[in-house]
Hints:
The protein is of the alpha+beta class. It is built from 14 helices and 32 strands.
Amino acid sequence: MPHPTVSVIVPVYNCRASLERCVGSVLGQTLGDLELICVDDGSTDDSLDVLRRFTDSRMIVLTQPNSGGPGAPRNAGLDRATGEFVLFLDADDWLGPRALELMVEMAEENATDIVIGKYVGVGRKVPVRLFRQTVGSTTIHDDKPDLYATLAPLKLFRRSLIGDTRFPEGLLSHEDQEFTALAYFRAKGVSVLADYDAYYWVEREDGSSIMQQGGAPDTEFFPVIGRVMRLVEEHTEPGPARDRMLRRHFREEVSARFGAAYLAASPERRAITEAGARVLVERHLTPAISAASAPFFRQLAHCLTDGREDLIPEIVAFGTAEKVPPLKVVDGRVYQDTPGFGELPDACFDVTDRLPFHAQLTAARWDGPRLVLEGDVELAGGRASDLSVLLRLRGDEPAELAFPVASAEPFRAVLDFAGTPLSKGRWDIVVRAALDGVPLAARPALGDLETPDTRFVLVDDGKPVLRGHRTDYGNLSVDAGWQSRTPEIVASARVGRGVVRVTGTMPASVPVTVKAKLRGSEEVVDAPARFDGDAFTADLPLRLLRDGTWQIEFDVAGLRGAFLPDALAAARVGLRRSARPYRTTGGRLAVALSSAPVLPRILAKLGLRRGWP
Length: 613
C-alpha cells in the first residue's frame, strides 16, 4: 500500500468543542494524499466520541491512558505515521484549506526539511516578524528570518529528519522545545511560507489550556529549558547567533516566570523559582546577552547572582503593575528610575541605547513640491523637546538634510523639495528630539495612512520623480529620481477654436510640456502646460498639425510620459479638415487629422456644425 505524502498528528485531551473544526480542516485539504492520526490521551469529556463519528478512511484514532502532557500522544502518532512528511496540529487549532499543498510544494521545490506555514493568532500573539516575507530556504543560524522565534512543533517536518527523535513525556509544557530546536539544527534548510494563512493558532477563551494554567511546575520547567540552552551551545559557536537564541530563552521563559504567579506564591515556592532561574543565569548568561536584554531581566539576573533576592518582589511588582518607568538622565546616560535604582549597578537600569521614543504620523500629503508631515511623538517616562525632521540618504555615500518642525504637539513639518532638491536614492525620514540633551530618534510610522504617491519635482541627478515608500516596518521613506516605467496621466482632449486642448490634473511642480508627435516621422509640436494648482491646460495649435495621426504625450524635465484618454470630443477644423481625438489600441491618447469630405463641409457652412463642441 503506498505511503501518504503527509501524516498529520493531533494529540487530543478534553477538547471536544474544537475537534470538529480541527479534524474537518485536515480532511478538507486540497492535498488529499494524507493520513490523520488523532491520539486521545485519556480524555474525560466526549472527545473520543466526537473522533469516532468521523468515517473518513484516511483518519486513524488511537487511544491511551492519560500521560500528563502532549509529548506521549505525539510520540504515539509518530510511531504510527507513514507519510513522507509529518505535521503536528493541536486540537484547538485548524489549517487553511491549501496549507498542506503549499507547504509540501515549498519543501519539494527548495529541498528543505522543515516548512513553517504562516501562523494566524486567534486570541493570542504569534511571531509576526517571522512572516514578513516568504523565504525559500534558510537555516537556524541566519538572523533573518529568526526561526528561533518559534520553538513550537506546529510545522511540517520530513519524517526522515525526525528519525527516532521523540518528545519528552509526562511534561505539562515546553516538552516541544528540545524536539524543535534539535530538528532546526539537523535540517539542511527551512522554508517559511508567509503569503498564505496556513495555521490558525488558538488561545482558549475559557483559559483552560495547559499553558494558560501555568504550564509545567518550576521543578520540571527550568531543567527542560536548561537542556535546550545546552543544546544551543552544543550546536553553535560563541557569537551573535548563539546569543540571539539564548537571549530568547531568558526573555520568553526565565523572565516570564517572574510575574503575578511568582508574587502570589509562598516564600518556599518563590525560592524554588529563584533557584531554578539562578542555575540558568549562572551557566548561560554572558555580558553580551545581558547588555542586549531588557532592564527588567538585567535587574532580575543581578539580584539572583548577587544575593539581592530581597529586591526581586518589589521589582516584579512594579513590572506586573504595568507602570511607565520614569526616565532619569545622569551624566549623559538615561536610566529607568525604578525599584532598586541607586542600590543595584546603574547598568541594570540603563536604557540610553533603547529609549522608548516613537513617532506616529497622522497626515502625510503633498502640497505642491512640499511634503507635509503631521503626527505625534511619544517618550514613555519622559518629555521630548527640540523636535526636527531629518532625511537620511541610504547607500555608500550617505547624506542628511534637516527640516525644522513648525509645531511640536502634535508636530508638523513641511519638507520643501523645491528649495532643497534631493539627490537620487532612498531617503529615510527620521524624527529627532532630545531628552535633557540626550539625542532621540525615531522613524515615523505610517499606520493606516496612504503612502504619498508620485510627485514630479526636480531631482539633482535623477529623473524628476519623488514618491513615498512604506518600509517593511511600516515607516515612511522617500524615493527620489526613480521611474521604472512610463508615467501615465489621465487627460481629456477637445478640438475647437484652432487648437487641440488637453486638460487634466498632474502632480507636477516643474514645467511641463505637452507634445504631439506625428506617427511615422520625427515631427513634433510642443505646447507649454498652464497650471492652476495641479490642474493643467495645454493648447496644441491645429495649424501646426498636418494630416495624420499624432500621439499626445508630456515631458517633465526630460521625463516622457503618456496620457490616458478620459473625455474625448471631435470637431471640424474649418471646411476642409476634421480632427478626432481617440484612444489607441494601447490605451494612449492620440489625435487623427484628415481632409474633410464635401458633404460635411456643406453642412458646416450651413451652420449645422460648430467648431467648438
